[in-house]
Amino acid sequence: MRDRELVTEAIRKAGGQKLLADIFGVSQSAISEWGRTRPIPRHVRSRIEEYLRKNEAPNSDGNERVEESPQRQGRFLPPLDRLLELVGLASEAESLLNLPPSARKRYEDRANELLAWLRRQLQEYQLLLETGHRRKTRYPKKGRTRPEP
Predict the structure, then answer these.
(1) pTM of the predicted model, to two decimals?
(2) Structural contact between residues 93 and 81, judged by C-beta atoms closer than 8 angstroms
(3) Residues 118-130: what's their mean pLDDT?
(4) Could you give the CA distance from residue 92 to residue 109 in angstroms, rounded to a whole number?
């Protein structure tokens, strides 16, 4: 299968370029370029082929059919499900599924923004803690003793 056909099939299965980009951890523009202006990277091509094979199951006609994306099945994507569970909103998820598609998309986009913000904040805080810890252990100030607890 040629690169463009492979990408087109993966986009169809995922439900859009943005969703496919989220699955593979790349930007939406990278997905757009694959097969058009540049080839699919070798390390990603095998993952895309595996992704396309993974959820195939024969239907009653004996033909192969690809499962629908979580959004089309009336569910949220796994990161959003985990977030709702984490903040104690898993029980309200059913009412969110009844929202119109445009409102659901806005809700998911906002949740993804919050996840990205939280990830950045935690990474920065971890870096701050690691830096402070290294400074305390490597470079004790001269003439000062640590107070005893």
Answers:
(1) 0.40
(2) yes
(3) 88
(4) 17
